[in-house]
Structures are given as C-alpha cells and as structure tokens.
Amino acid sequence: MTRPATLRTGLVLVLGLVVLSTSAQAQRPSTVDITCRQAQATVAQAGGIVLGTGGPTYDRFVRDRGFCEVTEIATRALAPTRDTPQCFIGYRCKEPGRGDRFDGAF
C-alpha cells in the first residue's frame, strides 16, 4: 500500500469507530430520563446493566454482588433520576482497596 492509501484506510477505521461508539451511546438508557423506581426496577430485572447518568457519563449497575467479578466487591450506587437527585438504584462493582471490609456488609 502507498502512504496515502494507508492514511485513508486508517482514517476510515477511526471514523467507523467514532460512529459505532456514538450510536451505542445513543441507545443506552439514561437514569435522568426515568423515575427512581423505574431505575431500580431496570437494574433489578437486568441484574447488571450499563446506564447513562446524564450527558456523556455512564456506569455499570448491578442488582447484587453475584453480578460482580470474583475479585470485586459491591458498593452502594446512587444516580440522578428524573424525580430524585440521588436515587439508590443498586450497586457498583469495584476492586477492593485498603480499608474495604470483607464481612458481607456491602
């Protein structure tokens, strides 16, 4: 391949990835568009789901620790919803750090 052809191919690949990521983001449900109770029900039904949390931000929420990796713990997750600024909708999985407890109190 010549240099311009390689550059064109790279540009097409990058643009394709941008389009794919933009369309995936557009299809993601957002907590700010639904009520607190609806967000809780969505997480409970799905078990683990990625939800938008306003603007370009998003996070993965889970029903319980069973949807986390074996090495992760579940921490309480609050997210803004249409009717509540900080709604408890489930948990987030995270790798434990120093000071995190492993006595099941999550």
3D architecture notes:
It is built from two helices and four strands, in the order H-H-E-E-E-E. With 106 residues, it is an alpha+beta fold. The chain has a two-stranded antiparallel sheet with strand order 1-2. A two-stranded antiparallel ribbon has the order 3-4. Strand 1 and strand 2 form a beta hairpin. The longest helix is centred in the first third of the chain and has 25 residues, at 3-27. The protein is extended and about 55 Å long. The mean pLDDT is 84.
Structural class: alpha+beta
Portion of residues in beta strands equals 15-25%
Global outline: extended
Output the helix-strand order: HHEEEE
Kindly provide the radius of gyration, computed on alpha-carbon positions and rounded to a whole number of angstroms: 19 Å
Oligomer: single chain
**Total count of helical runs of at least 4 residues:** 2
Percentage of helical residues?
A: 25-40%
User: What's the end-to-end separation, in Å?
Assistant: 56 Å
Tell me the major beta sheet: 2 strands, antiparallel
Overall mean pLDDT: 84
User: Which strand order do you get reading across the main beta sheet?
Assistant: 1-2
Low-confidence stretches: none
Number of strands: 4
In short:
The protein has 106 residues and is of the alpha+beta class. It has helices at residues 3-27, 36-46; strands spanning 48-52, 58-62, 73-79, 87-94.
